[in-house]
Structure formats: C-alpha cells, structure tokens
Write a structure and sequence with these properties.
The protein is of the alpha+beta class and 229 residues long. It has 7 helices and 8 strands, in the order H-H-E-H-E-E-E-H-E-H-E-H-E-H-E.
Length: 229
Amino acid sequence: MTCFERTAKSPRLALAVTAFALLAAPSAQAQSADMTFFVTSSGPGKGADLGGLEGADAQCQKLAQAVGAGAKTWRAYLSTQTADGKPAINARDRIGKGPWQNAKGTVIAKDVADLHGAANNLTKQTALSEKGEVVNGVGDTPNRHDILTGSQPDGTAFAAGDDKTCKNWTSSTQGAAVVGHVDRRGLRDDEPSKSWNSSHPSRGPDGGCSQADLKSTGGDGLLYCFAAN
C-alpha cells in the first residue's frame, strides 16, 4: 500500500498531515517577515538599466513582497553620480540604520559603520537571497557573484566623470557599473577581489551595461536590498 493510499484510508492521518503542513508554512513565512536584508534572486532583466533608483527599489520591494516581507520599505544598495544638475547619492545613506539580518535570522551588520567595516558578517553563506538561498559564486555554474553597487568601499558615490553607474542605472548598452563580490572572492588575493561592494567595473562587447556584459564577468544584474525602516 502506498503512502497516498494509507493517507486516503485514514482520515485521522490525513488530518494530521494537513495540520502539520499548516503549522510548518507560517513559520517559514514569519522568518521571511523578519528579514531586513537580501540579495535579489533575479534582476529586472535589462542589464544595468534598472529604471534608475526607483526601478531598483521597486525590484527589491517586489521580491520582498513575494516572500511575505513587503510591509517594510526596501531600498537597493546603489549610488548615483552627479549628472544633469542632480547631486550624487550615496548607497550608504539610502538603507536605514540597521541592524540587518538575512532570511534565516543571521545578522550581517548591526549598523552602517559595521556594514562598511572589516568585521561585518557578509559572506557567501550569509548574503542569502530573499528565498533564503545561497547565491552562486566562484566555482559555481553559473557564477553570479557580481552585485551592482556603483559605490566606493565606504558606500559613497564616485565623483562625476568616468561612468561607474551605467548612466545612473538607465543604460543597457554603453557605460560601466562598479560591482562587488557577494562571495568575497575574485581572480586575485587582494582587497578589491574580497570586497562585497566595490570590486571592479563591468565591461563587455555590448558596451559594458547589457545583461550579456554583466554575465560575461560573473554577474546577472543582481542587487543588495536593505529594509530602510
């Protein structure tokens, strides 16, 4: 007799199985509701053209909503550069005060200074997606460890001039965007390779900002998202 047949012939067993499922589901949802940091499991799909900061924030909000954490105000960890008469914006100023914890309840940083310090707890094992999953890094197929930030190591914007943000997150062709390594690993044993938020600029045959360009160096248009409230 199969498990299905036994369950079908035993109302008490069927009731117990249903009750267990109902009890298990809310606990996972509650855990996600407490989440205040995640790496997006997917990007908008247009390379570094995120629709500006507003579009990037909307992507964070949408993914958080899907796992029961939409009541918070989510912000993408992105900087912009001075352009068209508008001042630069620092990623570190957009994300609230902390502390921040992942979908499993592990604290990755207690405040902004801790996040940008040497002792933060942001690693491949803790920088989880909104689904609580590890993001592929060096040695995985495909490697998706490049996370868009457009930021310097201290979380501030780059000076105007050389494009570091794919035209403030509106270009999917020409330009470049600085990325960080979510797994803290790169081609060399140096600080940029180990940086979670400022490793190297994007590049590629389409001009540097397309989805294909981002994938060519180990990325996928992913973002860091923080609950700002």
